[in-house]
Design a protein that fits this description.
Number of strands: 0
Structural class: mainly alpha
Radius of gyration: 22 Å
Helix content: over 70%
Oligomer: single chain
């Protein structure tokens, strides 16, 4: 019996060594499974008044935990593999979750007067805590060293490297523009194509991330960025790039979309008046 168990262990080790992608897939599946279980428990057992808070916490944890493994995919399979991981996980999150777990989403709700400041602030704090918890979760996987990528991650646990590779102002603009595009996509209706909206948004987010990943990591998610890089460099620079940049980008996106909405409404009213005038003449 002992020989059989040893043989099975060796075969599993060979399988993991030959197919490191399998470990990443298991990581993703486990993360989504844990998130789904906690969301179900939340709906069934948590008092209704607290459900939205716990939901935001779980979704933020899930989003941040996924990002840790995306770095492993990028190192092992390059840009193409990284893009595929971003697309697949992005579609899954949008199809199965109520939100993307990004604090900017709660800021948007506050700016659109859909929630109070206290409510939004509390949720953002919980999302920050969830980001830190995702680091401990990923550490458990890296400690076991199931794949070469996780061994690489495990060796990095002793240090911390900032993803900011450009000057502060450029980094601030990169994260701000990324958030501008992301929020613009989230609040925009695709009308006839809305049934494909989740796929379109996930695909666009892949291109947004790839456009800036070499400059700032292109997080456009303050909780995720803080979990991964806060304390790795100047804390002031981190706050300016990964918090102020996205908040400014969000404000600009809301301003532009609101102006566009008003302009569209005005154009429709003018067209309607002209049409009504022509009918009266006839």
């Amino acid at each position: 019996m002992q020989n059989i168990w040893t043989y099975v262990q060796l075969e599993l080790l060979h399988l993991v060594h030959d197919f490191p992608l399998l470990i990443s897939i298991i990581y993703y599946a486990t993360t989504f499974f844990i998130g789904s279980i906690f969301l179900i428990l939340n709906r069934r057992f948590v008092p209704h008044i607290y459900q939205e808070y716990f939901s935001d916490f779980v979704l933020a944890f899930q989003a941040c935990a996924i990002t840790w493994e995306n770095a492993v995919i990028r190192r092992a399979y390059g840009t193409l593999g990284f893009a595929a991981a971003l697309l697949c996980t992005g579609i899954w999150i949008r199809c199965t979750c109520e939100s993307t777990g990004n604090p900017i989403g709660n800021f948007v709700k506050y700016m659109k007067r859909k929630t109070t400041f206290a409510n939004a602030f509390t949720k953002i704090l919980l999302q920050m805590l969830a980001g830190q918890l995702s680091y401990n979760y990923a550490n458990v996987w890296w400690y076991v060293e199931l794949s070469e990528g996780h061994i690489w991650r495990s060796n990095q646990m002793t240090g911390c490297t900032s993803d900011l590779t450009v000057p502060l102002l450029i980094g601030l603009h990169v994260e701000g523009l990324g958030t501008l595009a992301d929020v613009g996509l989230e609040v925009t209706s695709f009308k006839q194509l809305e049934k494909y909206g989740r796929f379109i948004r996930a695909l666009c987010n892949v291109f947004i991330t790839l456009a800036g990943v070499n400059y700032t990591g292109m997080y456009f998610n303050p909780a995720n960025a803080s979990a991964q890089t806060f304390g790795c460099h100047s804390n002031i620079e981190h706050i300016l790039v990964y918090w102020i940049g996205p908040l400014l980008g969000c404000l600009l996106a809301l301003h532009l979309t609101e102006n566009s909405r008003k302009q569209t409404q005005h154009t429709k009213k003018v067209a309607s008046r002209k049409g009504h005038g022509k009918r009266k003449v006839a």
